Each structure stands twice: as C-alpha cells, then as structure tokens.
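ugh ok so i messed up the first submission bc i forgot one of the chains. this is the corrected input, ALL of the components this time, i swear. 864 residues overall. if the numbers dont match what u have on ur side tell me asap before i send this to the collaborators (the ones from the other lab, u know who)
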Amino acid sequence: MIKYLVIVFLLGMTWQAVADDNRIRLNQSGNSDIYVITQIGNSNTLGGVTQTVSELTPTAIANISGGNNQITVRQGDSQTHIGNNQIDLAVSGSGNILNLNQGMDQNGYSNGLDQGGHHQIDYVNGMGNTITVIQQNEALNAGMFSSLQVIGNLNTVGITQTGVAMHQLMASVTGDQTTLISNQSGTSPHTINVTSSGNGNSAQITQNNNGSVGSNTASITLNNYGAPASVNLTQTGGQNYSITQSCATTCGVVTVKQGM
Amino acid sequence: MKLIIKYAKALTAIWFAIFFFRTAFADSGDYLYINQIGTGSTVNIEQTGDLAYIGGVNSDTASTSNRANLASTGGAQTVNITQADNNKLKLNYNTTGTLNFTGGSYTNATIDVGGQTLTSPSSGNNVTYTGTAGASGSAVTLNANVQGGTGNTISIINTGATTTSSIFNTAINGGGNSLTITAPGQSNTITTIQGMASSMVNQITATADVVGGTGQWVGTLNKLPDTPFAAAAGTTSTSSSIVMGLASGDSSNTIYVGQANTGQKANISLGSSSSNNGISLAQYGTGVNSSVISLTGNSSLINASQSGTGATNILGLVFTGDYNKIATLTQSGTSGTNIFGNVDGSVANTVNPITLAGYSTIGSLTQSAGSGINSITTIGLSGATTTVTANTISTLSQTGSGAGNNTIGTLSLTGGSNTIASLTQSGTGAGSNTITSLTLGDGSNTLTGLSQSSTGAGNNTITSMSLTGGTNKVTSISQTASSANNTISNLSMTGGSNTIGSITQSGTAANSLAVSTSEGGNTITSISQSGTGTNGASITFTGASNTLASLAQSGGDTNSFTLALTGSTNTVTATQISGASGQSNTANITGTGSGNTFTFSQHR
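and heres the new structure output, hopefully the right one now
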C-alpha cells in the first residue's frame, strides 16, 4: 500500500507540472445514456465537478450513475503525441459498457506513437458491467498507470497497457463471477497488482517485456469465498510473481507460464 | 340679374375707418363682385339661391387672379358670407378681423387670407368656414390660404354627415397659425400645406370625423401625394403640431403628413373599426420630430419616415386591428437620436408604443444614425388568444457609426405565426448594440435572422431572449465584433418544440452565452463561438428530447462549456478547440436523465 501511495503521489507531482489544456468535469445520472468523450491535447483531464489538478477527493472524480450506459473516453494527442492524460471516473450501475482509451485505440485508432503519460483511476460498482482500459505510448519516461476497483458480480474487465513506458496496474475486484484480463507489453518495467475477492472470479494476466533490462512483476491475491477462482499468468522477459490464494472451499486452478 | 357693388376708399391716416354695410339677397345665378379697402368695416353677404358667385370686380368669371378683395391698411374688417348650394366664392381676405363663411352643397370656395400679392402679410385673422351638406352626394370645394401671416385661426367644419367627395385645401405659410378642419362624409379630401416661414409655430387639427365615412383623403403639409416631397415649396416651418384623426367606422381613407425643419409633432389616429386606410408620414426636420400613429381598424397601410441632420426622431405606433401593414418605417439622423416607441410626455402613449395586433406587417423598420442613438423601446406583435395572428416584420434595422448606441428595449411576438424576417443592429464606432428583451410567445412565431455586428469598441448584447409556447423558430442569431464583447445573457426556451438554427459569436474579446430549456423537444442546431479571447457557453436542458446538435468553441484563450441536463433522450454534442499553448478547454457536465447522448471533443 505504501508503494501504491508513493506511486500516486509521484504521478500527481508530475501531473501538476503540466499545463492543463483540456478538462471535462462530469457528474451525471441516468440509464441508457451514451457518452463519447474525446480529448486531444497536451494535457487532458476527465474528472469530477470539483476537480483541480491532481486532486483525488470523491467529488473530484467524474461520476456517472445508472445502468446500461455506454461510456467512451479517448485521450491523446494525435498530432504532437506528447499529451498527458488523466481519467478519474466512478461508475455505479449495471450493464454499463466502459471503453477508456489513452493514447487511443481501441478503436479510437491513432498509430501507437503517442508519447504522453497516462493516468487512470476508475471505480465501477454494479453488475454485468464491461470495462475496457487501453493505455499505449512510445515514450520511455512517460509513464502509464491504471488503478481499477470493481465491486459487483458478473463484470468483465480488460486492461491493456502497451508501449515502451513503465506500466503499472492496480486492480481490485470484489464480487462474483468477474473476469479480469490484463495485458502488459513493452520494454520498460511492468508491474501489476491484482486482488480478487468473491466466488468464481478469474484473472488472466500477460506480461510481455522484451526490453534488454525489462522486468515483470505480478502480485496476485485471490480470496475465494465459495466457488473456485482461477489464475492464468504468462510472463515473458522478467519473471517475478507472487500468487496468494485464500480458499473457503476448493481452490481454483493456477497456471503460470514464464519465458515463452 | 346682375348686382355689382363697388366701394373703394384710400387709407391715409393711422385710424381711418370706413363703415360698409351691405346685405344682398340674391336669386339663382346672382353674381357679387367686391373690392373693399378699409378699416373697421363689417360686411354681411347672403346668397340664398343656386349658382351664385362672389368674385372680383368687373369679372364674369371667377379666377384666382380676379377675386373679391377685402383689404385693409390698418384696421380689422369683419366679413360674414353665407351662400346656398351650388355657389362659388373667390375671395382675397387681406385684412385683419374675422371672416365667417358658410357654404352650401356643391360650393366651390377659394379664400386667400393675407394674399400672396401683399407685401405685408396680414395677421390675427379668424376665418371660419361652416359647410352644411345638402342632399346626399353633395360636394364642397374649399381652398383657404394663409400666406405669410401670423396668428391666424382657421376653422373649417363641414357638418353634413352625408357630404361626399368634398375637397378642402388649405395652405399656411406663416407662423403661429391655427387650423382646424373637420370633414365628415365620404370620399372627402383635406389638404393642408404648411411652410414658407421659418421659426414659426402652427397648430393644425384635421379630422375627417364621421361614423361610416369612407374614402376620405386627409393630407397635410408641404407635399401633394403625387409629387416628390423634395419638390414641395417651402419646408421651413418649425415646431408644428398636427392632430389628425379618422373616427370609428371610417374606411378607405388616406392621411398624409409631411413636416420639415425643427420641432415637428404629429398625432394621427384611426378609429376603432376603421379599415383600408392609408397613412403617410414624412418628418425631416433638424430638431425634434415626434409622432404617434394609432390604428384600431384593419387593413391600413402605413409609410413613415423621419430624417434630418441632427434630428431627434420619435415615433410611436399602436396597431390594435388586423391586417395592418407598415410598408416602411425609417428614422435617420447623423447625430440625433432615433427612437421608436418612446414618445414624449405630450403624447399620451407610453405603453406598447409599437404594437401589431394581428395579421399585420412591418415591411421595413430602419434606424440609422451617425453619432446618434438608435432606440426601439417596445415593439409588440401580439394576437388575441382566441385567434391566430400572423404579424410580420420583414426588416428591422439599426445602424450607427459613432458613439451612439443601438438599442431595442422590448420586442415581443406573441400569438400565432408572427414573423421577423430580419433584425439587424450594426455599428462601427463606440456605440453598442443591445436587445434588452426579445420574446417569441405562444404560437408558431419565427425570427429568421438576428444579427448584431460591431467593428468598433461597442459591445453586442442580448440581455434576455425567450421562446415561450410551442413551435417557435429562430433561424439564426449572429454576433460579430472586432474588439468588443458578444454576450447572450439568457436565451430560454420555456415551451416545447422550439427551434434555434444557429447561434454564432465571433470576436477577439469575450464571447459568452447562456441557453436554457424548461420543457422538451427543443432543438439548437449549432452554436459557434470563435475568437482569440474568451469563449463561454452555458447550456441548461430540462425536459426530454432536447437537442444541441453542435457546439463549437475555437481559438479562445479559454474555452469553457457548462452543461446542466435534467431529462431523457437529450442529445448534446460539443467540440472545443483551443489555440496556442497555454490555452485551455473546460467542460462541466452535470445532471440526471436516461437515454441521453453526450459527445464531447476537446482539441488543442
């Protein structure tokens, strides 16, 4: 936890130093709404109505409540590729579809040459939500961070971080039958920390680091309260992982593949 | 039978008096020739038969050059003339005193007071003509001229309710004269011409006043209806005042008013059920031109023009009937103040000064001033709640080049199907363009084009604009400024299914607008804010199925957009594009509702 806070703090400091170009503050409730948000510039921010630079209080986080909403956020700079992007978003409700792209794709396109730093903190509370997080860049020191907390059942989470920057993912799942798929690929260190609590959850994690000094670090904690949970971890390049299971009944299947 | 009376006496002393008394009783076809020069005389003439004639000495035929002559070099003469039907009178009244003339039907009378041939115009005369109509269809022609005199009082009253096709021509070329004309009946013509002398004050009251009268023509001052105003002789009278009216029931009448020089004032009214009347007003003095035109009937046609260098033009209009049409309203002055609807205290008309009640039209309403002020206090197009109305303003324009402001206080379209085709305010100087309140009320009202432009330091401002009721339509709103601010403080749509086509603000200073709905089904096709200053837009949607199809902010130091949305199936699309580095785009979105679609794009 201390490590996590330090990372957030450092990213916050970096964020404050960047000019604030595009900012959307959002607090909306309703069902079946469609949000299409595109931010292209040096510094792009999606946050709450009281948000100021790097502020992370609850009201500083963009808030969408309701079910069956389609939320698409795309941040990046398709011209100079140096923009820093920040998403602070909380979604409560069921059946929502979130597609949060930084550096673009999927399918916001761009060509994968984005050099901006990406920062994302998401909270999702509800059932049957589908969350897709895409972060990509090609700048060594740009940084890439995603923090995701999911509460509820039958949610589907996919997080993809690609590019040469350092990748960091903190994911927490509380609920049943939730599937989390994460893919990190690039040449800088990759770090992933997943905590899953509930019944029948699964995590499929791939870390592919082909850099000369690249490393992969995975810390996975499964708290199985009933039905078994499963883990499928694949690491290419650096190989450092920790998997902890706490099983109320039968533990699930853990599969680890390294050095593919 | 022929009767000739000739009396002449030279006047050589200050108080020389000759008493002349003559009463003539004449049969049909009698002729009376008069040439009297003296002081203190009283002349009573009565012709009771038809085809009688009063004219000049030794003339068998009446002509303007050979008229009966009553003249004086020092004192007053009192003349009383009474004629029966079908008579003629040609008279030069070149003395002071009182002339009372009573004519019958089909009388043709020409009375010159202070004749043009005199080097010293007479003054202080009191001329009264009283005409009594005979049988139906009788007509009277009367020409009364006051040439160069002052302080004369002329009263022309035709009391016969059935008199038709009578002509009353009066000319006042002096000052301080008073003219009152009452012409009942039908198809009568009243012409009064005022001018010639400068710095004079004349008071004219011309009334074609009878219930049921039709086809009357009332004109006054300086110009015959079929000749260009500029061609009229004598345009220098000052501070004249006109009160003209057509009473209830009149129809197909024409009122023409032309005034020049300074201090002109006119109050023109048509009665409660008058219809198909025409009013032409031309005031181009250099002082204060003030007029009020009131219509309570239907289908009348108005042309009004106020102009002059440095003039202050004030015009109030009140239409309460239907199908009335204002072909042109024009006010222009290089340094004066142009005011529609704000009349001065002497005219009791301070509420809704420009009001169109139903099916009425303003073809062109134009104000232009150099350094002066253009002001429209109130324009109201309204209709009764139980009827559908279709009032139209084709063009409403205010232009200025100096420090004067262009101002529209209240402009409202209420009722059904009212239209303003074009509303324009433009300035090149320090003057600002302002619309304080613009309302499209119940019904399907339309504002096709609203434009404010400033190339100087003046700001463009719409303080309040509201679309209330349903299905109102505004095609475009445009604010353009070079160095000043563009502001729409409050644009509200409180009814359903209102439509705004486009809102455009462009300038290098600050562009700002606030739009709100309180019900559903309203649509804004596009909002565009562009410039190197600050762009700010606030949208509040309350209700279902409201649409902002496109909001675009570009180039500003700061682009800010605030959306507050409560309702379902609303659609909002916004794009912000900032300019150089260090500039920013900000959007705040809050609200509740389902089935809404939000599309936001931010670019730098």
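quick check: Residues 183 and 517 of chain B are 56 Å apart (CA to CA). that seems consistent at least. Chain B touches chain A through 28 residues (CB under 8 Å).
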